[in-house]
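Lab notebook, bench 4. Still working through the backlog of constructs that have no structural model yet. Next entry is a single chain of 100 residues. Request: give me the structure tokens for it.
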Amino acid sequence: MNLEQDIVRALRQVYDPEISVNVYDLGLIYAIDMDADRKATVTMTLTAPNCPLADQLLQDVHDAVRDVPGVTDVSLTLTFDPPWDRSRMSEEALLELGFL
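Model written out:
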């Protein structure tokens, strides 16, 4: 397995507290970048800019990535460009939420 796959696996264990779907399949993770020192930079969004549980969700993502063996450091970049919409969700997430 490579480190990015391990990070994705860890992110699939982090659930949006308001929606019973993990952040990866929900489409909140826009990018995962690794540098030569195995520092992970995760670019992500929220379902809405005024999400009341944003701090907790960001902390959960940070902690999950930090705990992946081999990751030396984690940086989170929160963006709302492009804005999140339902088209970013995986088929599994759409099915889980009854959209399919």
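Notes after review: Residues 54-66 form the longest helix (13 residues). The domain at 3-96 is CATH 3.30.300.130 (GMP Synthetase; Chain A, domain 3). Flag for follow-up if needed.
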